[in-house]
């Protein structure tokens, strides 16, 4: 079998510079969209103490009141598995 011969050399229908320009613009647009998403969709929560939780009675409590305190956990392994007891300590 002999190789397929063409009479005309293969050519792009669009110049390479135009294809490169389209590709470059697509990459730049994607990068700009990613940067905008990072800028405008940041979480609004600044730190741990801005959260609000519900206590055992169903009341909403802000964690701001625990700022500056350390939570000590005591393990009571011997009685019923790994039950933890918590105690708040003021600094």
**Count of helical segments?**
2
Task: Report the span from N to C terminus.
Answer: 89 Å
As a percent range, the share of helical residues equals: 25-40%
Which structural category fits the helices and strands? alpha+beta
Task: Give the rounded overall mean pLDDT.
Answer: 76
DSSP E strands, number: 4
Provide the β-strand percentage band.
15-25%
**SSE string, helix = H, strand = E?**
HEEEHE
Largest sheet: 2 strands, antiparallel
Global shape:
elongated
Give the spatial strand order of the biggest sheet: 1-2
Radius of gyration: 32 Å
The residue ranges in which pLDDT falls below 50 over 5 or more consecutive positions are: none
Provide an overview of this structure.
The chain has 91 residues and is α+β, with helices and mostly antiparallel strands. It has a domain of 43 residues. The protein is built from two helices and four strands. The strands form two sheets. It has a two-stranded antiparallel ribbon. A two-stranded antiparallel sheet has the order 3-4. The longest helix is centred in the first third of the chain and has 25 residues.
